[in-house]
Amino acid sequence: MHPRLLTIPAIELLGRSIGPFTLHTYGVLLAIAFLIGLWVVSRQARRAGLDANRITDMAVWVLIAGLIGAKLLLVAVDWRYFGRNPREIGSILQSGGVFYGGLLGGILVAAWYVRRHRLPGWQTADVLAPGVALGQAIGRLGCFAAGCCWGRPTQVPWAVTFTDVYSARAVGTPMDTPVHPSQLYESFAVLLIFLFLLWLSPRKRFDGQVVLSYVALYSAVRFALEFLRGDPDRGSWFGGAVSTSQLIAIALLLGVAVLLPRVRRNRAIAAA
Q1: Quick one: which of 54, 59, 149, 235 could link to 143 by a disulfide (CB 3.0–4.6 Å)?
Q2: At 263, which helix (H) or strand (E)?
Q3: Residues contacting residue 68 through CB under 8 Å, at least 6 positions apart
Q4: b/e string for 223-248 if b means 16 or more Cβ within 10 A?
Q5: Cα(143)–Cα(185) distance, rounded to whole angstroms?
Q6: What angle, rounded to 10 degrees, do the helices at 25-48 and 52-77 form?
Q7: Is residue 3 part of a domain?
């Protein structure tokens, strides 16, 4: 775990102290995730015969909305804690937030952009999905470096132990306790989903199949991984049976189950 790549000490300039400045590993990996995700989206757009520049512009707005949405849902889930400790809101800049908040925020902005520029909705969503998945896989490595989104205590041979005091102070990472590397679990799982989406894209039978596959696969993965997460205040529903993320995962899986046959049927009708 290396939450900070480097720190530039404070300097005196014209009688004033400026700094210190810290370059966080999470921020660097997030930037890399954005750039690589945009490259994948542009490449997929050209293959699909869409305007790559228009789709890339859309992807930038979707990524920004996703980042904001992830932070907002984090505050909403932990609103009691942040209400008691308003100064701690700044700590969300060093954590990944709640991905579902980012997904929902991105979907809303994408729908607005598609409608405004009259883009083919499902085809555009299929183009975006692999880039989002790869960016997510890289972003979870940033979570691991920052120490957020940690797993439950465990004694499995591959358990990790966080020792950086900076992360403990910033995001509450447990110190000197072997835990599941839940961030790495998710990163690897979403990387596999990304590879599957790349394989599926040129073989899809109807527009919408790629993005709906992504939503279904990630929701299933996230539902399962939530049982291994150890960070507190994850939201509690039905007497603590499920977390907020698991509840959203169930809703999305049900949504895909309803949409998939309809989208497939509409495609068959259009092709007839």
Answers
A1: 149
A2: helix 244-271
A3: 102, 105
A4: bebbebbbbeebbeeeeeebbbbbbb
A5: 12
A6: 140
A7: no
**200, part of any domain:** yes
SS3 151: strand
Give residues with Cβ within 8 angstroms of 65, minimum separation 6: 102, 105, 106, 108, 109
Domain of residue 54 covers 25-265
Does residue 8 sit in helix, strand or coil? Answer: strand
Residues 6+ apart with CB under 8 A from 247: 235, 237
Q: Is residue 272 part of a domain?
A: no
| Overall number of domains in the chain | 1
> Among 120-124, 133-137, 180-184, 267-271, which is the least confidently predicted range?
267-271
Calpha distance 144→127 (Å, rounded)? 28
Integer Cα distance of 38 and 199 in angstroms: 18
Summarize the chain as % helix, strand, coil (round to 5).
70, 10, 20
CA-to-CA distance for 264 and 272, rounded, in angstroms? 12
Chain-wide mean pLDDT for the chain? Answer: 84
Q: Model pTM?
A: 0.84
Amino acid identity for residue 61 in this structure: W
Paired tokens of 202 = 């040129």
**Quick check: is 18 in a domain?**
no
Cα distances (angstroms) measured from residue 62 to each of 108, 158, 246, 248: 8, 35, 23, 19
Whether pLDDT at 219 is above 90: yes
User: pLDDT grade, residue 89 (50/70/90)?
Assistant: low
Q: In 3D, which of 177, 172, 179, 261 has the Cα closest to residue 212?
A: 261
Instruction: Note the pLDDT of residue 25.
Output: 83
